[in-house]
Design goal:
286 residues; alpha/beta; Rossmann fold; 47% helix; binds nicotinamide-adenine-dinucleotide
């Protein structure tokens, strides 16, 4: 097993859910932590908890969608620790809805956080990670919604497909320059986090279509999303799967075996040029 003692983990979206679980685990195995999140209150609470356990923690409150803010987070991390061993490019949000009913602001918000966020993260951290010339890795959080169409959440699915494409190219470009940085693609199914309440962290730049949240279409799809997230696997289980995959150099990190045949079915449709007939084709049979 890799000895992570004294190594540095960078985590975005660290104040809740997956990011928080990663922070607690990384601290428990002796890693130093650089934690970023837009929610300053929750991030400070977590830092207090970690410091009480003697963890070496740096926090930075920022918006991953803003490239200059991400660069400032990277500068602060590098000044403090002068190393990055695992970079969890993790923050993300979702708004369910029908493609043509979802307001432009919601499309923009989710794409800014879920697509430009990881891009900004790569631009801020990867040049330093290549230059440090030692084994290290970037773990981009996509989703099963980046490998299969998420029927209720088109903007989320589109954004996570973008993260899949981005990370596949990142993997090749890192190899192409002979970097010692390995890319990993995290594609979880539902995890019990606070994702369904992510609207609480939406910056005021995007408000203006609040009527949408009163619509019955939104409310019905939101209830489905919330139920799925609440009944997801535990963050602790996910963290164990992630660290096992890092150890085995398993690029695609999956959590729910039952989705794998559906990915195969989709690939077969693509190769054969077949139109998928109904969303049911991609639903897990219970
Ligand atoms: N929960 C699931 O079922 C699930 C499934 C697959 C993938 N994911 C992905 O996991 C990642 C983590 O989500 P989670 O489920 O832990 O949700 P969460 O809401 O519990 O945590 C997300 C964190 O990201 C932060 N955040 C939101 N917008 C931000 C921004 N602009 N800048 C910086 N920080 C921001 C939030 O404040 C929050 O602390 C996301 O990328 C999500 O898409 C979640």
């Amino acid at each position: 097993m890799v000895d992570y003692q004294g190594k540095v983990a960078v985590i975005t979206g660290a104040a809740s859910g997956v990011g928080r679980g990663l922070a607690l685990y990384c601290a428990s195995i002796g890693m130093k932590l650089a934690l970023g999140d837009i929610n300053g209150g929750k991030l400070r609470e977590l830092a207090k908890e970690l410091k009480a356990q003697n963890a070496d923690v740096l926090t930075y409150v920022f918006n991953v969608a803003k490239d200059q803010e991400f660069k400032a987070f990277a500068e602060k991390t590098i000044t403090e620790f002068n190393a990055v061993d695992i970079f969890f490019n993790n923050a993300g949000v979702s708004v369910p809805g029908e493609i043509w009913s979802l307001p432009a602001e919601e499309w923009k918000w989710v794409m800014d956080v879920n697509v430009l966020g990881p891009v900004n993260g790569i631009r801020a951290f990867v040049p330093f990670m290549i230059a440090q010339d030692k084994d290290c890795c970037v773990v981009n959080t996509a989703s099963i919604a980046g490998l299969l169409p998420a029927f209720n959440a088109p903007v989320y699915s589109a954004s996570k497909h973008a993260v899949v494409g981005l990370t596949e190219v990142l993997n090749f470009q890192l190899q192409d320059v002979g970097a010692k940085v390995r890319a990993f693609l995290l594609c979880p199914g539902y995890i019990a986090t606070n994702l369904h309440n992510c609207m609480e962290n939406r910056p005021s730049d995007y408000t203006g279509a609040d009527d949408y949240f009163q619509s019955s279409d939104f409310k019905e799809r939101y209830d489905i999303m919330a139920a799925n997230v609440i009944n997801g696997i535990s963050v602790e289980k996910l963290v164990a799967v992630i660290f096992d995959a890092l150890e085995k150099d398993q690029y695609y990190i999956h959590t729910h075996e039952e989705f794998l045949p559906l990915i195969g079915k989709r690939a077969s449709n693509i190769v054969k040029g077949r139109r998928p007939r109904s969303p049911g084709q991609y639903k897990v049979q219970k």
